[in-house]
Design goal:
single chain; mainly beta; Neuraminidase; five-stranded mixed sheet; four-stranded antiparallel sheet; 41% strand; disordered N terminus; binds calcium ion
Length: 398
């Protein structure tokens, strides 16, 4: 194994030595230099050591397989999901998070369980905070993701109220992979975007009779907006905003109102995509990665009718978690996206300039990164993966 700064990203993949050497070559390194916003030409994105990062990392809490988190606006509270089915209310500085009651039964196993949680706007006058959450459920002998709205009032206790299921993956299928089920609320506060993974079944991403392998847009009561691109179609087709997605584990709006999502490629070819109305992102027909067994999937340039990724990664980073950061506290950052890497064990900054995404820094976090959140004060919050997952607070170095 050659000495290579992004060896962690290669773990678990049997790459030919030539590919390893190419990935570790000085040419690949210089193509996406840290600190700049270089145009990516190789797919590579080498890590730099955490010690050279512009932030200090403080461990603030531990969780069992944490998956997602959200801050409750105007409060010192956040909500954290654990994949096994617990929802936790954590107050800044608290030693122990509180288990939230009223959480539905989830089908925990494989990649499924309790999934995302997001705040939906501000609390009402009584302090009831609307939220949305997602999970995997069993049914008809199969599995599928579910999204619900609910309220929680941290002043009166850690309890979910008014839980209402507003969306389901359709059809339910076998297996426990690629649920996706990440959530983002539109800047108008009225529309919910859901990433729906293709459940490791490939072709559903192109099948317009189901909602797998899609980005979904619905209202907060679960109804379909009249201006959805396929609103005139019957059934779940009307929910579809974009298609040809694989397993998107991050979605967020930036301050300009642009919607971004990333998705795990198959063997490599992880993508960052600007989500455009009615666009087809090409999976499983095209991917800059290939099948795990080595069979080729034609690369994006061979089929220009499909929307190509804005950025892509070879070797894989296994992206998870995506948050917007306006640059507060960090000289020279400007508008940015921050994303985690599971196999990449990385925190990645993507600079947004003139509406375009550019690979900027990639820091070696030494652990699988499952979730990234940001706060208006510029602080960055990272959840690492696994049974002893950590909540890390990242603050600018003075
Ligand atoms: Ca989050
Ligand atoms: Ca390919």
């Amino acid at each position: 194994m050659p000495a290579c700064s992004h060896y962690p990203a290669l773990r678990g993949f049997a790459l030919p030595m030539a590919a390893l050497l190419a990935a570790c070559s000085p040419a690949a390194t210089s193509a996406s230099n840290a600190g700049g916003a270089a145009i990516d030409t190789t797919g590579a994105h080498p890590s730099v050591a955490l010690a050279s990062a512009p932030f200090t990392v403080t461990e603030v809490a531990s969780f069992n397989q944490p998956w997602a988190m959200t801050f409750l606006p105007g409060t010192s509270f956040s909500l954290i999901t654990e994949k096994g089915g617990r929802l936790l209310l954590w107050e800044d500085g608290a030693d122990t998070p509180l288990a939230v009651t009223g959480v539905p039964q989830v089908a925990a196993g494989g990649q499924g369980g309790l999934g995302d949680v997001i705040a939906l706007g501000k609390p009402n006058a009584n302090g009831d905070q609307p939220i949305a959450l997602s999970w995997a459920e069993a049914g008809e002998g199969n599995f599928g993701a579910v999204v619900a709205t609910a309220t929680i009032n941290p002043d009166t206790g850690p309890a979910l109220q008014n839980l209402k299921i507003i969306w389901r993956q359709s059809p339910k299928v076998s297996g426990r992979g690629h649920f996706g089920h990440r959530l983002a609320i539109a800047p108008d506060g009225q529309h919910l975007f859901i990433t729906s993974g293709e459940r490791q079944k490939f072709d559903p991403a192109q099948d317009m009779s189901g909602n797998l392998g899609k980005v979904i847009r619905i209202r907060l009561d679960g109804s379909v907006p009249d201006d959805n691109p396929f609103a005139d179609k019957q059934g779940v087709t009307a929910q579809i905003w974009s298609l040809g997605h694989r397993n998107p584990l991050g979605i967020t709006f930036d301050a300009a109102g642009t919607l971004w999502t990333h998705e795990m490629g198959p063997a490599h070819g992880d993508e960052l995509n600007k989500v455009e109305r009615a666009a087809n992102y090409g999976y499983p027909i095209v991917s800059n990665g290939d099948h795990y067994d080595g069979r080729d999937i034609p690369d994006h340039p061979t089929r220009p009718e499909f929307r190509a990724p804005d950025l892509w990664w070879n070797p894989a980073i296994s992206p998870a978690g995506l948050a917007y950061h306006g640059g507060t506290g960090y000289a020279g950052w400007g508008p940015s996206l921050l994303m985690g890497g599971l196999s990449g064990e990385a925190l990645i900054r993507i600079a947004i300039k003139d509406g375009k995404a550019h690979k900027a820094e990639r820091w070696d976090m030494g652990a699988r990164v499952r979730e990234v959140e940001t706060r208006e004060d510029g602080s960055i919050w990272v959840l690492t993966d696994g049974p002893d997952g950590k909540l890390l607070k990242l603050t600018p170095k003075p």
